[in-house]
């Protein structure tokens, strides 16, 4: 009887179609299954809360308690698993974002980093390096031709994004003007 009543509570929505690479689909499917399991466990527990007479009835008491214990335990376990899946998805998204940022063209990296100052920064970088991350003039390197002491202070890296971040730090510390650079946007 308990299993029959519990089956009435079961609400299993159709699986959503998930596009993307297999690893991505796997995590998304796992998240979907975990959400469905949690939803089901909550429905079953709510059913027993609203049908307390099953816990009093001599004939149904043992089965009802077994079901409640099982669904509470499963709810706790699945909730922990859901958190781990969400962390895995967040980590994957961070890796994807980092890869997109690292692969950004110099112009796009400058736009991402400098925001409203991007047009001026692009003019300076075009003048200083021709938008080349490998540009070098003596001790001056990169998109914004930063010297060795500036690279130590503000950072530097091989990617356009790393060089734009370093130049932005230098730009901000200099009062948001272009006085440190030989090329000016105006």
Strand content: under 5%
State the total count of DSSP E strands: 2
Taking all residues together, what is the mean pLDDT?
A: 88
Radius of gyration, in angstroms, nearest whole number: 29 Å
Please give the alpha-carbon distance between the first and last residues.
82 Å
Shape: rod-shaped
In terms of quaternary structure, what is this?
single chain
Count up the domains: 2
Strand order of the largest sheet: 1-2
- How would you spell out the order of helices and strands? HHHHHHEEHH
Report a brief summary of the structure.
The chain is mainly alpha-helical and 186 residues long. It contains eight helices and two strands, in the order ααααααββαα.
